[in-house]
């Protein structure tokens, strides 16, 4: 069976309170589509279409979105007497989506732990519900399979907070708005895990990015796949507007051809 993709979509998104008082962060729209949809498209473009969404805060909105997905992406006739519907033109996708409530207060590692009953005895991919990038998922999986460890984390270079200046004396010869920095690598939020990861997830309070990843590194079980391309989180309203502008330009770096 194909590898499942867990998407962590249950957090409160407090740094984007302007948007998340109304909806969960993964349901914030870029170009009229939830960020969650954009993330799924990245995986689906590489043939991974079996998803488990770890719901939490306002998870009912995520469930309602997918419950109505076929209706919103199809033409149909409806019999108003009995409510039966006949789809005549479907623009929907061939994804399989599991929507699982993993608790309101559960931490990232705890959410993955709660999904264990729905994960086959094989590797699983995990992604945050608020990061976009032109990640080569096929290459990520190949790298993971090549090294034989329990876990692979995608390392990215963070976007700089401010525009970069190249100067000649007091004269600016080049200005670059938000370049990628060359200052090391950070966790980009695209993971591949072997089933042994569950031995590192103790409870709902387990934060993936702390003890589990620290222990995996100490046990020589954590490898990094370096992604040099585009990557952008959506932590602030400014970053949300930046992603909107990229999508509206028709040249969004994370946009993948649909399969």
Short description:
Helices cover 25% and strands 29% of the residues. By secondary structure, the protein is α/β, with parallel strands linked by helices.
For the record, the count of structural domains works out to: 1
Looking at the overall shape, the CATH architecture is: Alpha-Beta Complex
- Strand order, biggest sheet? 7-4-1-8-13-10-14
Output the CATH homologous superfamily: Spore Coat Polysaccharide Biosynthesis Protein SpsA, Chain A
Mean pLDDT: 90
Describe the overall structure.
The chain is of the alpha/beta class and 259 residues long. It has a single domain (5-155, 185-248), classed as Spore Coat Polysaccharide Biosynthesis Protein SpsA, Chain A. 25% of the residues lie in helices and 29% in strands. It contains 8 helices and 15 strands. The protein has helices at residues 17-20, 35-44, 59-67, 69-72, 108-114, 137-147, 211-218, 237-248, and strands spanning 5-9, 29-30, 33-34, 50-55, 74-78, 85-90, 96-101, 124-128, 131-133, 151-156, 164-168, 171-176, 186-193, 222-227, 231-233. The strands form 5 sheets. Strands 7-4-1-8-13-10-14 form a 7-stranded mixed β-sheet, with helices on both faces. β5 and β6 (85-90) form a beta hairpin. It is globular. The model has no long low-confidence stretch (mean pLDDT 90).
Features:
Spore Coat Polysaccharide Biosynthesis Protein SpsA, Chain A; alpha/beta; 15 strands; globular; 259 residues; 25% helix; 29% strand; 7-stranded mixed β-sheet; two-stranded antiparallel sheet
